[in-house]
Amino acid sequence: MGNGAQGMDCRHFIDGQYIDLGASPTFDNINPATEQVIGRIAEGGKAEVDLAVAAAKRAFNNGWKQSKLSERAAILRKIGDIILHRKDELAMLETMDTGKPLWLSTNIDMVRSAGSYHFYANFISTMGTDAYPMEQGAMNFVVRRPLGVVGMINPWNLPLLLLSAKLAPALAMGNTVVLKPARWTPMTATLLGEICKEAGLPDGVINIVNGAGRSVGEAMAEHPDIRAIAFTGETSTGKSIMKAGAASLKRLSFELGGKNPNIIFADCDLDEVVDTSLRSSFINQGAVCLCGSRIYVQRPIYEQFLERFAERTKQQIVGDPLQPNTNIGALISKQHYERVLEYIELAKQEGGQVIAGGGPARVSDKGYYVEPTIITSLTQDCRVIGEEIFGPVVTVQPFDTEEEVIGYANDTHYGLSASVWTKDSSRAFRVAHAIEAGLTWVNTWFLRDPRTPYGGEKMSGIGRQGGMFSLDFYSEVSTICIKY
Ligand code: NAD
Fold first, then answer.
1. Where is the Aldehyde dehydrogenase domain (predicted)?
2. CA distances to 120, 362, 461 from 290, in Å
3. How far is ligand 1, taken at its centre, from the CA of residue 289, in Å?
4. Quick one: what percent of the chain has pLDDT higher than 90?
5. How many angstroms is it from 261 CA to the middle of ligand 1?
6. pLDDT tens sequence across 392-438
7. 32 neighbors 333 (Cβ within 8 angstroms)
8. pLDDT at residue 4 above 80?
9. What is the per-residue pLDDT for 24?
10. Tens of pLDDT, residues 182-203
């Protein structure tokens, strides 16, 4: 990324104003593709969280909770429009923060982020409510009120996109928000402050506090005036947030880790499977929670799949995120890069055979690049099969029967997503239904109507997002029963 792209300093955004960095503590923001410092980030703590919550509480009580639905829909629509209008600038910042290819930031992260605001603007504009008449001469109505101040704690892999999936329904329901971007990726979230202000969002409705999980995140989880926390991140962090939020009995939405099976039966369309498996394995450097990192292939086509998949994997271009032909960019940080390489070494110690990739990618003498890596010959009990790596590393194992592969798929404490490839529709349904995952795809991947529930089973999460499911989370749902 040597073309002189500019980063920015990331300040807190509280009560409609950016807080000057002044003499407050900061830390450096590093571009993982170049290892260059691209700005300073304000290091917040409990004091800033307290200020942000107080501002959010005032904004809630001073008008936002009574705001008209049409007013909120118009603001959401405008936020989506501004994101699309500033798409190229925002995508560049997202790429500098994350190391992901610019085409991906532009076409997926920014487009889908804007889509969340547009979707909820339309959704609330047409939504009704449930009503149940009773024979005793009574009518029950289900009504929704906003919760008040809600907190959002976000990961680094899809910074603006995952944040928008939370923020849009929370604002749609009339809540005010304190949000914390991931420490590694604060730039697009920080700009959201000015974007929301330009869209007409009143001061204090959205507040952004930058900093570390252990200080800002924990202070949010403990804060008695934050009614709910929507968190996306690692399962272990979710457990800490749950503990910290217990005293104030916080409502929680958790989108956590995954180790998703990609199940390929012999009667699949192999061309399509190879194409999609490349994406579901390595897109965003393998750091999408929905990536299919455990590939199971039915024995009659195992060798054929492996040969074609390995050949295509070796052709993937790892390189400068700004180049349009780059498939795989840099990993988020030195620490994560080392962790992913350690897993590759562990796979070898566990008896795995590396049939593509297997080490650092030589792009330049700077940056945290790892080759897309395929590992075979591991058994189900290996750590590399069981633990989330969140990098461009997949395992491939053969299987014989449907029962056997369902057993493998469910043999994990995670349960986020799965994909099944077969032309037999009865089997597709049987297998999809038997898999313990919040979302199972058949003959596709990464496709979902935004009205459907999204979330994980087992250690992959608590609750569901999407459509009405998000609106339920961000509101008090209550019943009014009228006797007539
Ligand atoms: P992480 O858990 O390390 O961090 C996520 C956020 O939590 C960051 O903002 C961090 O600063 C904050 N945090 C850290 N410790 C905290 C604490 N004690 N209290 C409060 N906040 C704290 O996760 P990450 O490395 O940023 O993201 C990768 C993880 O996210 C992977 O496990 C991935 O599977 C998961 N993820 C899940 C989904 C999903 O939809 N299920 C989507 C994307 C990512």
1. 24-480
2. 23, 27, 13
3. 11
4. 98
5. 21
6. 999 999 999 999 999 999 999 999 999 999 999 999 999 999 999 99
7. yes
8. no
9. 82
10. 999 999 999 999 999 999 999 9
Ligand 1 pocket residue status of 213, Cβ below 6 Å: yes
Residue minimizing CA distance to atom 10 of ligand 1: 213
Question: Atom 15 (ligand 1): residue with closest C-alpha?
Answer: 213
Check residue 23 and give its pLDDT: 76
CB within 8 Å of 318: residues ≥ 6 apart: 326, 327, 328, 329, 361, 363, 369, 370, 371, 372
pLDDT digits (tens, 9 = 90+) for 90-108: 999 999 999 999 999 999 9
Higher pLDDT, 157 or 21: 157
* Residue-level pLDDT at 22: 84
What is the atom index within ligand 1 of the atom nearest the CA of 254?
41
3-state secondary structure at position 262: strand
Give the side-chain half-sphere CA count within 13 A for 276: 22
Task: Output the pLDDT for position 1.
Answer: 43
Minimal-distance CA residue to ligand 1 atom 30: 233
Mutating to test ligand 1, I would choose from 226, 232, 387 the residue with most ligand atoms within 8 A of its C-beta, which is 232
Ranges of beta strands (E only) in 377-474 are: 393-399, 414-415, 417-421, 439-442, 457-458, 461-462
Ligand 1, atom nearest to 180 Cα = 9
**461 Cβ below 6 A of ligand 1:** yes
Is 255 in the active site?
yes
Atom nearest to 257 CA in ligand 1 = 34
Which of 98, 234, 331, 393 best tests ligand 1's pocket when mutated (most atoms within 8 Å of CB)?
234
232 lines ligand 1 (CB under 6 A): yes
So where are the chain's domains?
A: 4-256+458-483, 261-442
The CATH architecture of the domain made up of 261-442 is 3-Layer(aba) Sandwich (3.40)
Q: Say how many Å lie between the CA of residue 50 and the centre of ligand 1.
A: 22
Torsion of CA 240, 100, 35, 165, to 10 degrees: -40
Protein residue closest via CA to atom 37 of ligand 1? 256
Q: Euclidean distance between the first and final Cα of the chain, in Å? A: 70
AA letter at 127: M
Tens-place pLDDT, residues 195-250: 999 999 999 999 999 999 999 999 999 999 999 999 999 999 999 999 999 999 99
Report CA(235)–ligand 1 centroid distance (Å).
Answer: 8
- CA neighbours within 13 Å on the CB side: how many for 243? 7
Q: Which fold has domain 4-256+458-483?
A: Aldehyde Dehydrogenase; Chain A, domain 1 (3.40.605)
Mutate to test the pocket of ligand 1, among 237, 465, 470 (most ligand atoms within 8 A of CB): 237
Question: 255, 371, 388, 436: which one is catalytic?
Answer: 255
